[in-house]
Specification:
A six-stranded mixed β-sheet has the order 1-6-7-8-9-10, with helices on one face. The chain has a four-stranded antiparallel β-sheet with strand order 2-3-4-5, with no helix packed on it. It is mainly β. About 15% of the residues lie in helices and about 40% in strands. It starts with a helix and ends in a 6-residue tail after the last strand. The longest helix has 12 residues. It contains two helices and ten strands; from the N terminus they run H-E-E-E-E-E-E-E-E-E-H-E. The protein has one domain.
Amino acid sequence: MRRMLAGLGIMICFVGSSPAAAEESVYTTIDLGECQQAPVDVKDPLQSGIWQCAGYLGIPVWITESDLRFFVSYGANAANETAAHETLPPFNYINSTLEWRLNDQGQPFATILRFFTDSGDGGPENQILVVTAISSSGICHAAYVNASANPQANELAQAAADMLARNFSCGYHLPLWIGDRGNF
């Protein structure tokens, strides 16, 4: 793990000058009005919505809103993946653009989604890019980039996805903050 972290640190230092990676991105749109809405869990009084949307190649995107926070997961078993229970601590909502990082066979190994956060106390709002690993070990958050504090946040998130997501082990590795965490 130390080698992976050291490698990530070196890679991030050169993100602006490195050649293009073999990985590529495709983008899909999240429009909750076009998604299939599922019944909310009556046992959870804070839950206000559950949606299943179609993502890249028809991959299901599972979105839940509970206690003014969004949770996003992927795949046929999305509701049972770790990502379905992960969110950012402050109140938040998600952007409509979802980036899928693809391997050289065109299969997604990570997503990058912008979350807008609000502490609820009149403090500053932040934009956090959440990198979610899609791997054989599961689907879970792998990294966070504060887009409000890092001018090259998109490049940092893509580099984090490319370096971490393929070998990320949900339940074993913890998500990393990449770049300046700012006042988050």
